[in-house]
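Help needed: design a sequence for this.
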């Protein structure tokens, strides 16, 4: 039996204060394995719907087509009809990503929200406005960086993508990173850090600490920082300063890598 319905049921019981009356179901074996390059596997903050097999396997781009894409435009063409996971049939627009295809700084968020789903562009809502202001604070315009997400289709109610959904999309993001070849990746919030690097520790602890991601034999420095949506919710001088410090460090590294 799949774990998600059981977990949803358990959480509902917990909400009702009835948890002590039942035994906690054991996690499914697969959930025990780390998702990627080490680190603890963790569940998303909000429960995802139970995972279902792809609705239309014929509309799932085969791995060789993803690997063979020689440019971002090729890749977008190859994957824009994707129905690999249950998010595909629910989308209005596929949100591939955008920006300078040779950017030295690449930003990775979680997944499209409502505005992004409507427009087919990443970070165009309130969080996007703040991201642009954050970029402005380090002297960059949106067009000078590349912006993508872990998942390309909007999760219902803007929930955190389920691990299976993130995994179905991860090869696309990794190929995007290979094609852009940024000097530095900035991960926004806990989800890209968990799904790309397998780091499940809280973003408050992880932010500001350099990590590395290996993509096609190249090690890319990664700077984790807070997600702009979190900054909007916690609009304190401390949080804003933390993000500013993280972005300054990321830009300084990208600048000096560009001169090397
Ligand atoms: N939040 C994200 O993580 N990505 C977007 O594109 C928009 C909001």
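Sure. Designed sequence:
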């Amino acid at each position: 039996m799949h774990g998600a319905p059981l977990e949803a049921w358990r959480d509902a019981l917990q909400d009702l204060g009835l948890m002590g009356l039942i035994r906690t179901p054991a996690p499914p074996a697969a959930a025990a394995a780390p998702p990627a390059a080490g680190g603890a596997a963790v569940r998303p903050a909000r429960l995802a719907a139970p995972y279902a097999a792809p609705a239309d396997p014929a509309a799932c781009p085969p791995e060789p087509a993803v690997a063979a894409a020689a440019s971002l435009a090729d890749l977008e063409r190859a994957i824009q009809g994707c129905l690999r996971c249950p998010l595909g049939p629910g989308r209005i627009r596929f949100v591939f990503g955008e920006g300078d295809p040779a950017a030295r700084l690449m930003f990775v968020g979680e997944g499209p929200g409502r505005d992004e789903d409507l427009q087919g562009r990443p970070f165009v809502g309130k969080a996007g406005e703040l991201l642009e202001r954050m970029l402005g604070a380090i002297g960059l315009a949106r067009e000078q960086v590349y912006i993508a997400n872990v998942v390309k289709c909007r999760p219902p109610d803007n929930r955190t993508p389920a691990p299976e959904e993130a995994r179905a999309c991860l090869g696309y993001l990794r190929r995007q990173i290979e094609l852009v070849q940024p000097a530095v990746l900035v991960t926004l919030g806990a989800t890209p850090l968990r799904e790309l690097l397998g780091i499940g520790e809280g973003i408050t602890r992880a932010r500001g600490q350099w990590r590395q991601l290996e993509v096609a034999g190249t090690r890319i420095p990664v700077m984790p920082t807070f997600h702009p949506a979190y900054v909007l919710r916690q609009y304190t001088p401390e949080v804003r300063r933390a993000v500013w410090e993280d972005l300054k460090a990321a830009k300084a590294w990208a600048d000096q890598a560009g001169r090397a």
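The domain at 97-259 is CATH 3.40.470.10 (Uracil-DNA Glycosylase, subunit E).
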